Amino acid sequence: MKVIVVAQQKGGAGKTMLCVQLGAALAERGRVLLIDTDPQQTLTRWAALRAARGGETKVPLAIETLSGWRVSSALSRHGADFVLVDTPPKLDGEARLVLREADLVLVPMQPALPDLWAAETVLGLIGEIGPEAALVLNRVPASGKLAAEIGAELARRGLPHLAATLGNRVLFAQSFARGLGVSEAAPMSPAAAEIGALAAEVGERLGLAQPVAAGREGRG
Question: Contact 87/19 with Cβ under 8 angstroms?
Fold first, then answer.
């Protein structure tokens, strides 16, 4: 089992969107559990949309709504290959308990300086606890120099980030509104290719060179 925590204190960065899109993509490699610990329960509401879709879903996703202090016990009773946890916007108290369970923390950010400043703060908080963390550039415009400039600034500051990025594509929002991952709703689209590349890089970060074998149990 590999635990991926999605964390960000700045609103509008795409935290829940990243959680569900990555979860759907990773479900092609193994069993996935999504955990909603955010009091806003955006992930939980998405799960209700998904349940209503029935036969349109292409991959199974287990979804639970829990307080942060219950995450550890949930991990011990689930046989998922990947667990993705959506966290509250304020990383204190119970959220820190969740971060301690992480094999990898992903911090989504838009390619803008306010997001970069907020992400630096989040990385500092994560660093106090210890898990590996990486920034994920989200809603990257198709043209212009801004993304390249932010990428160069991340490198200059030595901030950990994934090479794979997610574009500012309407298909991400459209699939989310239908309770689906873009890899289910439009598997041949550029958006699906982007989330697939991100899932592959996350797998590499977690030391998974090959797809997860069926029946794999336990942490590690």
Answer: no
**Predicted confidence (pLDDT) per residue in 121-153, tens digit:** 999 999 999 899 999 999 998 877 877 888 888
Question: Is 192 within the bounds of a domain?
Answer: yes
Q: How many domains does the chain have?
A: 1
Q: How many CA atoms lie within 13 A of 109 on its CB side?
A: 29
Strand partners, 36: 65, 86
Q: Would you tell me the crossing angle of helices 42-53 and 15-26 to the nearest 10 degrees?
A: 40
Helix (H, G, I), strand (E, B) or coil at 155: helix
Contact partners, residue 153, CB within 8 Å, separation at least 6? 116
Q: Is residue 46 part of a domain?
A: yes
Answer yes or no: are the C-beta atoms of 109 and 120 closer than 8 Å. Answer: no
Residue 23 is assigned to a structural domain of this protein:
yes
Q: Which of 11-15, 50-54, 110-114, 212-216 is predicted with the least confidence, judged by mean pLDDT?
A: 212-216
Whole-structure pTM value: 0.90
